[in-house]
Structure formats: C-alpha cells, structure tokens
Amino acid sequence: MPVRIVRNDIAQMHADAIVNAANAQLSAGGGVCGALHAAAGPGLLQKCMSLHGCKTGQVKVTGGYNLHCKYVIHAVGPVWQGGSRGERELLASCYRQALAKAQELGCRSIAFPILSSGIYGYPKAEALQVAMEEIGAFLMAQDMQVDLVVYTRESVEIGSKLFADIRQYIDDHYVAAHPDVMRRPDPPHMMESVACMPAPCAALDLEEELLHLDESFSQAVLRLIGEKGMTNAQCYKKANLDRKHFSKIQNDVHYKPKKTTALALAVALELSLDETKALLQKAGLAISHSDVFDVIVEFFIRQEKYDIFVINEALFLHDQPMLGSVLL
C-alpha cells in the first residue's frame, strides 16, 4: 500500500495505530503529544505513567482509549543538537521500530506525525527526509497503509536549494498567462538559486514508436516493466500505488489512468521525458506547460530524480495533487 501525506489533526485520524511524538517520561506534553493525550482522555496518561518512560529512539505501546485507533505507539525522537550526536540514526530508529511494532500487532494502517520536527528542533527538511526514507524502505517489503500527517502545509519543508531550483524551473517554463501560479511567497534565503538543467532528451526512435503504435497504456506499462527488469510489485510500490489499483491496470487492456497515476508509473519506471510523453500519449494525456503540476514533475524527470516521495513533497508544498494513491 502507498504512503500518503495527509493534512489533518492527527488526533482525528482513523488508523489501526497512531504514533505519538512522545517525551522520554511519556508524560502529556505539548504539540502532537498534548493533542493526542487530550483527545484520548485520562486513561492514556495513567497507562503511560505505568510504563516507566522510554529511551530516545525507542517506542512503547498503549491502547488507543478515546482515539480512533486500536493502539498508540509512543516514539521518543531526538532533540536536535546540531546533527553530530547521532540524531539521524535515533530518528530513523523511531520510524523503524514503530513500523515493526505495528506489523507485529497486525496493523494494516498507521499514522505518523513528522517526529522531532516541532519543539525538539530537528530541521523540517531533514526530518521529513528521514521519515520518507524509512517508510519507503518498509513499504518496499511490506504492505501497510502509512499516513504522514501534517497539521499545516508549513509543517513540511524540502531543502532550500531544491525548492529554489523548482521555483526557478517553474518561472522559466510555466506559461506567462498565469501570474498567480505561486501561492506562497519566496523565503528570503531561496531567492538566488538557479536550476542547472541537462540538455533535452533525444527523440524516441521512430521505428520503436511505430512498433508499439497500437499498444494500449496498460500493455505499454507491462512491456516497460519487463524491459526494465522489474517485477510488477517493484513497479507499483515505486509508483506509490496499491496492489488493487495495479491489478486494475494489469487486467484491463482498456484501462485509462488519471495523469497522477500515469506519471507515477513513468517515475517508477525511470523513463526519460520523451518516453514519459509517449506513455502518456497512449492514455490520451500530455504534459502541458500551462499546468504547474506537469511542470514540477517534468523538472524531476529532466533531472533524472525519480524518488517519488521527494516529488510528492514538492507537489504538496506547491498545492498540487500528488503522484500515486495519495491524499491532500
């Protein structure tokens, strides 16, 4: 199953397990921790006090009480101290242990906040990267619905250089008739970076195009999976699609995808821009420079950066739909 970035109050999420950004004492603090304790009721705190705390980088489990979940997994993330005191490994351990515990408990869904990115001061871009890397690695081997829950869009932040490069690419390629494209002002430290783009992709071989002229979208996807030496599971997981969705693509020769699905598969298959355009054409779709979503995805494909989670972070920050089976 895919990972979704969800904008919501985590205390209102429905999942088998909800992860609490806990402190070492497992007491009711502020932020996510305070919100979960307030929604769960006093029983949660009473149980937590009987667990005698939790070490940084580790997790402990309680029931969900009045929350919409069976379990609360309390993860104690590190306090940011500059990055030289093992903070990254401790934070990664929180995600790995929480996911392993959820699997052990038979959970089919889990909701995370971005751990340590609040009062613990872990830089948001780096905290999000750790979350996505650990969740992504887990989902390549396991099936579970994972929601990364943010309360506001400002809770998410990708690296300033990458953000600036995307902005520059949009400025250079987006149709000028849309001056209101960007809703968020440029942070001062993001104003001077300029993207360095590789040369355009070479045109596809004409004979190759003619060979697959009558091929449907689903047939093309299955052919490309074989040509790339991938399994179907590897492809749909890299595309952030769930197994049922991919089964529809696989079993329906006339399947017509949404653009978010088609581009997700192009990214998973690591297609060039010309190859991506050819795949989209089989679904009656095209990349348009009058669509910010298209321009952002094109930016990553031109750069040969095929990490779908990073692409979705960028799309989320620009108020765009995301690739694969994801929600805003």
Q: Would you kindly provide a brief summary of this structure?
A:
The chain has 328 residues and is α/β, with parallel strands linked by helices. It has helices at 31-40, 42-49, 87-104, 124-141, 160-173, 206-211, 217-227, 232-238, 243-251, 259-268, 273-281, 292-302, 308-317, and strands at residues 3-7, 17-22, 59-63, 71-76, 109-112, 145-150.
Please report the distance between the alpha carbons of the first and last residues.
17 Å
Mean pLDDT: 86
Task: Please estimate the helix content.
Answer: 40-55%
Low-confidence runs (pLDDT<50, min 5 residues)?
A: 181-203
**How many individual helices?**
13
**How many distinct beta strands?**
6
Descriptive keywords:
single chain; 328 residues; alpha/beta; six-stranded mixed beta sheet; 6 strands
